[in-house]
Write a structure and sequence with these properties.
Number of strands: 21
Distance between the termini: 55 Å
Number of helices: 10
Helix content: 25-40%
Largest sheet: 6 strands, antiparallel
Radius of gyration: 47 Å
Strand content: 15-25%
Shape: rod-shaped
Strand order of the largest sheet: 2-1-11-10-7-8
Length: about 550
């Protein structure tokens, strides 16, 4: 972990530990780090601590946030950098509990025990024991170092087993995530390399629509079939009861020739209608099959049940039976003489293949309309932050701004924006990727030149090595009798004062010949003799820009 050490102000010497994530610095009581300086805003600066870096963000403060003397909106802070919060200067150090522990008193290590530190000044520097074979460095390297372990150098912490090898439900989930990250997702990530991202998303949506429609047909078919079977049982039982009622009187009178099943056979879906004698299972009706014994397992089970029943004989047939009898006064029970048997075809109620296909197509069309609507909003949701960020980045590069933002609650996107803002800050303020001036990469000195003219108290102008005016302060505009906005970006020959223009041109020629010296000339302004001074600024072999100041001669005003 890391901590901030306050170097100036009434709290100088205080060390405040930083927590992971956001740390708000300001005067307000709710701030994570409270500073007592009156020039500090209520919420002045935010310090965001991540594993690899520390990101500084100015919270639109009145007096600004400065990183190594340069005012910033966003920036990355490294070990050794100085952060200015208005007039309070701080730096970042390893947190006290993350430093190597000193050996206890009395142990023979050759390193003296450290004195306790309670704040109020710079922390005492104690020698640190380095692992064997590691060279001693004179200073900390650029970039964010890893925190040192709290234990001794020789004690190696045991390496924990991967989470998915620890067993349990959580281990199983971690194993599934690990499989997705290593096997499944790499293949998915390659799809946008072969086709547009919107086509990949559309393919996933179409696949989802067809899979959902097909899978939804399975329970729908099962529910429909169950409804058809129940309705078939009800109708078959109703027909069997009607047959028993119609033929009960003739059966009790032993008038077998009067038994009839014609009306029931005419019903839709009826396969067979039989009246079967209870005693021997012989068919009594219809007359065409009278005297025979049916070879149907359902008939034999119906004779054993002695009660109305309706069952599924096979996948396409429902069997229903209803007993026919009379009341026996000797036993006080119903005496069954025969059974009315009905075999009913389930297919008579089921819808055909054409209707099933029609239902599938209707479901598919509805799912497609909803799916395409979801695809449109999903694609726009992905496209919007990228388009917005690209437009802001383009404007920032043109207008030299170091702040972009997209208010999406999506941590990877916010991390990307933070890195972009840090890169813009380093670009505008002339800091290369290596972490300091003169490092390899692009360097833009315009921001530095613009800041410099505001610091100089005399009339001042900065000119690039090509002769383009980078910036000038209000005092110079007054001397040159022109507007700053009209001068910026123009060649210095656009200055309307011809004498001033010629003097500047002569000074630039001399400074190019000897860039290490300050060259001067004299010019009169409104009856007052002034000195023009020109100096070159460079970070390498070539001059980056020139600064020209106008100051009164000694004793002048």
């Amino acid at each position: 972990m890391w901590a901030l050490r306050i170097l100036t102000g009434p709290q100088a010497g205080t060390i405040i530990e930083l927590k992971m994530g956001k740390n708000v610095i300001g005067r307000a009581p709710q701030c994570d780090i409270k500073l007592l300086s009156p020039g500090v805003s209520k919420e002045h600066t935010e310090v965001a601590v991540f594993k690899e870096k520390i990101v500084i963000t100015d919270l639109k403060s009145s007096n600004g946030t400065y990183l190594n003397g340069i005012r910033i909106q966003n920036g990355i802070m490294r070990l050794g950098d100085k952060l200015g919060i208005h007039d309070v200067l701080v730096d970042v150090i390893p947190a006290p509990e993350a430093r190597p522990q000193a050996p206890r008193a009395g142990t023979s290590t050759g390193v003296p025990a450290p004195m306790p530190y309670y704040g109020g000044g710079a922390a005492p520097q104690m020698p640190q024991q380095m692992p064997m074979g590691m060279p001693q460095h004179q200073g900390m390297p650029q970039g964010m170092p890893q925190p040192m372990a709290g234990g001794m150098a020789g004690a190696a912490a045991p390496t924990p087993a991967p989470a998915y090898q620890q067993g349990g439900f959580k281990g199983l989930m971690d194993k599934a995530h690990d499989y997705l990250d290593r096997v499944a997702l790499p293949g998915v990530y390659k799809l946008p390399q072969f086709m547009e991202l919107k086509m990949v998303l559309l393919g996933f949506v179409v696949l989802f629509i067809f899979a959902t429609t097909l899978l939804s047909m399975i329970p729908m078919v099962q529910i429909t079939r169950a409804s058809i079977i129940n309705e078939s049982k009800r109708r078959a039982a109703s027909i069997a009861r009607t047959v028993a009622t119609i033929n009960q009187a003739a059966l009790l009178q032993n008038s077998y020739s009067s038994l009839s099943t014609n009306a029931a056979e005419a019903e839709d879906g009826v396969k067979q209608v039989l009246i079967v004698q209870q005693s021997d299972g012989m068919i009594l009706a219809p007359a065409s099959r009278a005297g025979t014994t049916p070879d149907l397992p359902f008939v034999h089970s119906a004779r054993r049940e002695m009660r109305p029943q309706s069952v599924e004989v096979d996948s396409s047939t429902i069997g229903a039976s209803f007993p026919i009898g009379l009341f026996d006064p000797n036993t006080g029970e119903q005496s069954v003489k025969a059974h009315a048997i009905v075999l009913y075809d389930i297919g008579s109620l089921a819808f055909d293949d054409g209707r099933a296909i029609s239902l599938f197509m209707q479901t598919l069309v509805i799912a497609s309309l909803l799916g395409l609507l979801i695809y449109f909003f999903m694609y726009k949701l992905i496209e919007y932050p990228i388009v917005t960020l690209n437009a802001q980045l383009d404007a920032a590069m043109r207008e030299k701004k170091d702040n972009t933002e997209v208010n999406f609650m999506f941590p990877p996107l916010q991390a990307l924006i933070g890195n972009i803002n840090s890169l813009l800050t380093r670009y505008i303020n002339g800091e290369a990727d290596g972490g300091g001036p003169g490092a390899s990469g692009f360097v833009n000195k315009d921001g530095e030149a613009e800041n410099l003219v505001q610091i100089v108290g005399f009339p001042c102008i900065t000119i690039s090595r090509e002769g383009r005016i980078i910036a000038c302060n209000a005092a110079f505009s007054s001397v040159a009798r022109t507007d700053m906005a009209q001068l910026q970006g123009q060649l210095f020959k656009a200055i309307p004062d011809v004498a001033l223009q010629q003097n500047i041109e002569g000074l630039l020629v001399k400074t190019r010949e000897n860039p290490r010296a300050i060259h001067t000339d004299q010019l009169e302004f409104s009856g007052h003799l002034c000195i023009l001074s020109c100096q070159a600024f460079s970070s390498g072999q070539e001059v980056d820009y020139f600064i020209v100041t106008v100051s009164p001669v000694e004793g002048g005003s």
